[in-house]
Design a protein that fits this description.
The chain is built from five helices and nine strands. By secondary structure, it is of the alpha+beta class. The chain starts with 20 loop residues before the first helix and ends in a 9-residue tail after the last strand.
């Protein structure tokens, strides 16, 4: 998937309930840094609403007679970091976080960090091209900015995407600039190639500098 996950290009779209230790860790440790776009749907009236998230959607209200559910359309998942750019330590998570929840670690979420590192920006595949990616990233940056609890929003992304021929046969060498300019449209600055080697490297550092007075992180 290309456009729906431009933050890194490695974490594919995952419907709620799909097993992922990284996502479980991040949603548990810092849910306030995660954002979702939802749609209220009545299953019996949405026979053609074929989204993977519909099958796992939760009821909007437990006593709704029509059984309406809240369906996830897009999501951003993030953690806090002490670094000015996303690092390999940010990309990881402590394997013993469940058995030793109070144990300090240099890996993963850093409570009190002044950088918010986006790990995943995902839009349901069948809703790509509808503007949801633009909607959620702009809303997310504004939300973090208004909170006053961070100095910057950071991410790493690839700078290329396969052309149509490559999607067909997987061997095309024609590649096009894509994700760096995608984020620059929303105010992110390109800092050059990233030192992060997660997933084999090849990433580019992007940062959005926030302009808000400091407040204490609760």
């Amino acid at each position: 998937m290309r456009r729906p996950c431009p933050a890194r290009g490695t974490e594919r779209y995952r419907a709620p309930g799909v097993d992922s230790p990284q996502i479980e860790y991040r949603l548990t440790k810092c849910p306030e840094l995660c954002l979702g776009v939802f749609c209220t749907v009545v299953p019996e009236e949405a026979k053609d609403f074929d989204l993977a998230t519909l099958r796992m959607a939760k009821p909007v209200e437990t006593d709704r007679e029509n059984g309406a559910v809240s369906v996830l359309l897009a999501q951003i998942i993030s953690t806090r970091s002490n670094a000015n750019v996303v690092t390999d330590a940010d990309m990881g998570y402590p394997k013993d976080w469940k058995s030793a929840p109070g144990k300090a670690s240099d890996v993963g979420h850093q409570e009190g960090g002044r950088s918010v590192a986006i790990h995943s920006l995902a839009v349901a595949p069948k809703l790509q091209g509808c503007g949801l990616g633009k909607l959620i990233i702009k809303s997310y940056v504004q939300q973090i900015n208004n909170s006053g609890t961070a100095d910057r929003v950071t991410l790493i992304c690839q700078d290329v995407r396969n052309c149509f021929a490559c999607l067909l046969d997987g061997c095309c060498t024609n590649r096009h600039q894509y994700l760096v300019t995608y984020y620059q449209r929303f105010g992110f600055q390109h800092l050059g190639e990233s030192k992060a080697q997660f997933g084999g490297g090849g990433w580019h550092d992007m940062v959005f500098h926030l302009e808000v007075p400091h407040t204490n992180v609760c």
